[in-house]
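Re: the 178-residue chain
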Amino acid sequence: MARLPLHLLGSPVLRQRSEEVAKVDDDVRAFVDSMFETMDAAQGVGLAANQVGVARRVAVIDADGHRIAMINPRIVSAEGRATAEEGCLSIPEVFADVTRPERVVLEALDADGTPYRLEVGALAARAIQHEIDHLDGILFLDHLGPIKRKMLLARWKKDHRNDTTYIKEVTPAAAPSD
């Protein structure tokens, strides 16, 4: 396993629609393990392959007791509406309220290539939708009204005007000291 570098807002891969995974093999399993390691080190709730520069339909989440790999995921049904604050590892320090379906039914393959179906709500449902959006080249900012989106993008550009790359190495957060 290895931590993977994160792609930040402005990286073209974040706007790409990811390709289906034809076969779950050892390379895909190793990639899933590296995605979990990266997500954990970055203290995220979810991570999509686009966010680490790979346009393949692979994502991971760890929310509400659901630590799952999603290969070729799709939402087969959704219901309700809930608004909650979202952020993104690819757009650090930017947060906004996003309205999404409250419950979803997911179909995907796990890291062994076994199909599964999962019905979830709350944070797990939100994380699944957020990561599948990434796989479709959609960012959480795209769910905002034009004024709010423009304001947050302007702030991002100002805060990152001196950045020379759209890549960020992930280092684990320091453990709290006693």
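The CA atoms of residues 121 and 160 lie 35 Å apart.
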